[in-house]
Amino acid sequence: MNLEEDRLKHKLVQYISDDFLIRKEVRGVHLIGRTGVSIDFLLYPKQHLIDDGFDSEWIGLEAKYIRDFKNGDLGKKSKLVWQSITYAQSVFEVDGARVRPFFILMYVGEEDFSKDEFGERAAVSWRALVNLAQYANVGWMITSPRYGWVIRFGGGTYYRNGRGRGNVTFSSKTRVGSIC
């Protein structure tokens, strides 16, 4: 971890601490490889979010500082997506219980890099990765001084702070093999 990533995580906690119970650096086990893993955060929604439609489940979040995200560092983006997918296939120890996160979020900072204004190359590569990742229940969080935080998946918005639940729903069906 580096200083920039520490700052990124600190800023994220400032955005979300009123809305989530936060567990940091949570250890777990990847269910397929049976190897140890450690995720940056496990989050549980506070009651006001649950009352507003947020699922009452633990979710995981992995934060990464990617220096030149705008110009399309596809290697680091791909590694973040794969790391997040493996966390979706893992269980973690939280307060003495084994928890499999309902979904996993990636966090790279305040910008929404799926928008074309950040460069076509960055937008296209990021959209392709997050569209694939959504099949593993992996999305991303965006923060902004203007609107707080938003959770998005390839197909839309799951939750927007201050506005509530969006158009993304999750099924209990595990997406393995053919998804057609």
Low-pLDDT runs of 5+ residues are none
Would you tell me the overall average pLDDT?
A: 86
Assess the beta-strand content as a share of residues. 25-35%
- Please compute the radius of gyration using only Cα atoms: 15 Å
Q: How are helices and strands ordered from N to C?
A: HEEHEHEEEHEEEE
Number of domains: 1
Terminal residue distance: 39 Å
SS-derived structural category = alpha+beta
Strands in their spatial order, largest beta sheet: 5-4-1-2-3-6-7-8-9-10
Largest sheet: 10 strands, mixed
- How many beta strands in the DSSP annotation? 10
The total of helices stands at 4
Provide the helix percentage.
25-40%
Polypeptide structure, described:
The termini are far apart. It is built from four helices and ten strands. With 180 residues, the chain is of the alpha+beta class. The mean pLDDT is 86. It is 27% helix and 32% strand. It has a ten-stranded mixed beta sheet with strand order 5-4-1-2-3-6-7-8-9-10, sandwiched between helices. It has one domain (3-165). Helix 3 packs parallel to helix 4. Helix 4 links the parallel strand 6 (104-107) and strand 7. The longest helix has 15 residues, at 74-88. The chain has helices at 3-16, 47-51, 74-88, 120-133; strands at residues 20-30, 36-45, 59-63, 90-94, 97-99, 104-107, 138-144, 148-153, 156-160, 164-165.
Brief rundown of the structure:
The protein is an alpha+beta fold. Helices cover 27% and strands 32% of the residues. The chain has one domain (3-165).
Descriptive tags:
10 strands; 180 residues; ten-stranded mixed sheet; 4 helices; alpha+beta
